[in-house]
Amino acid sequence: MILNSNPLQNLRTYAILGTGALGGFYGARLQQVGIEVHFLLRSDYEQVQQQGLIIESPDGNFTLPQVYAYRNGCDMPACDVAIVALKTTQNHLLPELLPPVLKENGVVLVLQNGLGIEAEVAKIVGSDRVLGGLCFLCSNKVAPGHIRHLDYKQITLGDYRENYVPCGITERMQHIATDFERAGIPIDRSEDLLIARWKKLVWNIPFNGLSVVLNATTQQMMADKQTCALAEQLMKEVVAGAAACVQAIDLGSTRAVPPTFIQTMLDYTAKMTSYRTSMKVDYDDRRPLEVEAILGNPLRMAKRAGVELPQIQMLYQQLKFLDARNRDEFNQAASQA
Amino acid sequence: MILNSNPLQNLRTYAILGTGALGGFYGARLQQVGIEVHFLLRSDYEQVQQQGLIIESPDGNFTLPQVYAYRNGCDMPACDVAIVALKTTQNHLLPELLPPVLKENGVVLVLQNGLGIEAEVAKIVGSDRVLGGLCFLCSNKVAPGHIRHLDYKQITLGDYRENYVPCGITERMQHIATDFERAGIPIDRSEDLLIARWKKLVWNIPFNGLSVVLNATTQQMMADKQTCALAEQLMKEVVAGAAACVQAIDLGSTRAVPPTFIQTMLDYTAKMTSYRTSMKVDYDDRRPLEVEAILGNPLRMAKRAGVELPQIQMLYQQLKFLDARNRDEFNQAASQA
């Protein structure tokens, strides 16, 4: 009996490490089209074990009454693809979480924000077993096991090689892309994961960072000529950082974030509906901020390549101060409760 | 009848333009020792006309039941010294205020924060009629005509010449210093007003600026290694700005803010009791911030001298955004009231 024209496609299994607004959404969409998915949960475990996953979405609401739910990574079966969908502030757990959930030829797909995570994961599982994905997704967890998808959903996929050497469109990337596309998720295939990551930082660094420091929405920042100019300056530093990092590993390379991309991102942001960035949501909910992945790693990578990025540096320092105070206040409130 | 060994000293009259926490304190101290002082007031006029000025101070509380109070500058008599003690955000009023209150040989003493105000005043009254003073004063207005002096009071005086050419200890500076010292105010005589102004910015730019952006006291900022490092970086940019400006007008000059001054200021701030900066007080009270005098003018002066100060630039842009939003909210609240 032939189930599918491509038998491999039918056999791939997925582990979702971090079943939140992002991992829960993509995992549920994969399971919905018949792919075997295993979900790692922490606080939501009981609820999801009992009621399954509830997804609200402009594409149509749906419930998965039964999912493979796990409280501990070591109870999960080895899978073909392990999707890292934790906040990067939880990545210290990966050396323990990843090895047991990977089949011998299994790969890791990092669906996180920021730079350099694939290289960290490669240290755990080997540099030939990692891919990266950049999610353009607007989704919130509104209750345990209950996810509200609001807008966008597309993913840019890129395969990883040591030192972010570009490796084109690989076969395993195609397989994963096919699974996601079957689940209705548009996939952009990138030949250069490093440049794709830096391009996303062109938006993420100024708008995630300033939204927290200035307590502002994207709309407020775009409406003010000072913050608009500041966002552009920060974007120029991101482009300069990308250029320095590429040249440091590949002198004379033409790989680059095109400078015109800055204006594209500014125009796009000006037209967006007003948006509270993910870092602002984390800050308001008193969760740790992804400062190291989004600002710290790019700063350190640029510095190793010989370039200082003074305004990103300052934004990083301001965020570190605010994050530390936010955590202190959270811990004080928790200890008084 | 000889009233005083130095007759000039006895005859000098003062106009205080801006009878707030600073102008009210110094003016009252001058009047207390018998010097003729005329006070310009706006909102507090009625109250002061009726009850005089009340000063609380660790040096001793006192009341001046009767003062020469004016609601309009044009009603004031011409004086020997006009002290500018408005917030710099009110300096657009100076072309109208200054000429009538100055005797033919009268001079203006600018007791404001920031850079470049003496040059602006020189355009109104002539460049040979301006002095600057940097106040190290901790004082609040607690009610109309009621000032609470908390700590410090010393003034650094410097005479002004076109282009901030250093002009040493001048005779007119000595006269004014003598009046203030008679009133118990310690005076530091500076031979170089430009360097004195930049030195004050070494503290004012990082701590006034960051206190507003990060909603933090000096103590919180000094206790965090990120903001402590950021303050030091901003101070280095101030020192670099000063050096560029001096070299632009006086190539090869040895005039400079000594780099060791940075550590002195950091140590001093670490030892200070926790302090809400004047810009933070203005922000919390929804008054306009002195962003242009304290950050905008130094940035523009440095830029003319060929130097960019990227972190001060970013702080300036953040403050302009926050100040504009703060004023909007104030105006909205006022229009709804």
Most extensive interface, chain pair and sizes: A-B, 25 and 25 residues
What is the residue-averaged pLDDT of chain A?
Answer: 94
Please state the structural category of chain A.
alpha/beta
What's the arrangement of strands in the largest beta sheet of chain A?
5-2-1-6-7-8-11-12
How helix-rich are the residues of chain A, as a percent range?
A: 40-55%
Largest sheet properties of chain A: 8 strands, mixed
Query: How is the CATH topology of the largest domain in chain A named?
Result: Rossmann fold
Please provide a written account of the structure:
The structure is a homodimer of 337-residue chains. Chain A is an alpha/beta fold and 337 residues long. Chain A has 2 domains: 7-191, Rossmann fold; 195-336, Orthogonal Bundle (N-(1-d-carboxylethyl)-l-norvaline Dehydrogenase, domain 2). Helix content of chain A is 48%, strand content 18%. Chain A contains 13 helices and 12 strands. The first copy, chain A, has an 8-stranded mixed β-sheet, with helices on both faces. In chain A, strands 4-3-10-9 form a 4-stranded mixed β-sheet, with helices on one face. In chain A, a hairpin with a 5-residue loop joins β3 (53-56) and β4. In chain A, α7 (193-213) crosses α12 (291-304) and α7 (193-213) crosses α13 (310-336). The longest helix of chain A is centred in the C-terminal third of the chain and has 27 residues, at 310-336. The N and C termini of chain A lie far apart (60 Å). Mean pLDDT of chain A is 94; it is low at 1-9. Chains A and B meet through α9 and α13 of A and α9 and α13 of B.
